[in-house]
Amino acid sequence: MRRATSRCSRSWNYDSTALHPNGVMKGGWFIGPQTTGKESVLAPLPYIVQGNSVYLATMSVPITIDGKFA
To answer: How far lies 59's CA from each of 39, 64, 66, in Å?
Structure first.
């Protein structure tokens, strides 16, 4: 569904290191914080969502429990 206004929504895909057509690793938003233990911000990049071309920015924060990635 295409919306006339910007919205914040959640989605995830962390099971792959394959590349999107735009060259970004599919699981990069997850794998980066998992391996570094640090926050990650990815610039807006073009993706196809529900048949529409959209730009998505990604902000990821690792969650740890007793010092281990959860």
So the answer is: 8, 16, 23
- Which pLDDT belongs to residue 45? 82
Q: Domain spans of the chain?
A: 28-69
Neighbour tally for 19: CB within 10 Å: 11
Cα separation, 52 vs 46, in Å, equals 10
**Token pair of 32 as six digits:** 């980066």
C-alpha span between 37 and 55 (Å, rounded): 26
pLDDT in tens, 20-61: 777 777 788 888 899 899 999 988 888 888 888 889 888 999
**Residue 48's beta-bridge partner residues?**
53
What's the chain's Rg over C-alpha atoms? 14
